[in-house]
Amino acid sequence: MWSKLIGYLEDGKYEIDNTLIENAIRPLALGRKNYLFAGSHSAAQEAAMMYSFFATCKINQVEPLAWLTDVLTRIPEHKANKLDELLRQNWEKQVSAH
Q1: Same domain for 53 and 10
Q2: 91 and 55 in a common domain
Q3: Which residue has the higher pLDDT, 32 or 96?
Q4: Mean pLDDT over residues 16-40, rounded?
Q5: What is residue 40's predicted lDDT score, i.e. its pLDDT?
Q6: How many independent structural domains does the chain possess?
Q7: What share of residues in the chain are helix, strand, coil (percent, to 5)?
């Protein structure tokens, strides 16, 4: 373990604990409990998709309603080969360009 300790001491990007990661995945753990009471397998899958959507928005600092509103109005005229521009992680760049 000595080499790993030395690596930690020499590289400032390593965190001393994993609190940030644990806090980031806490909603997923809560979601798993909630999926048990979703009513059906299909409803649990839909809930999981919503958790994923909101988590991605949060990570990318995107307001979910603004993203959905903008993308749903733009998507009919948007080029199919450029749909990746409308992904939440790329969306803000597109909005600032307009």
Answers
A1: yes
A2: no
A3: 32
A4: 77
A5: 85
A6: 2
A7: 80, 0, 20
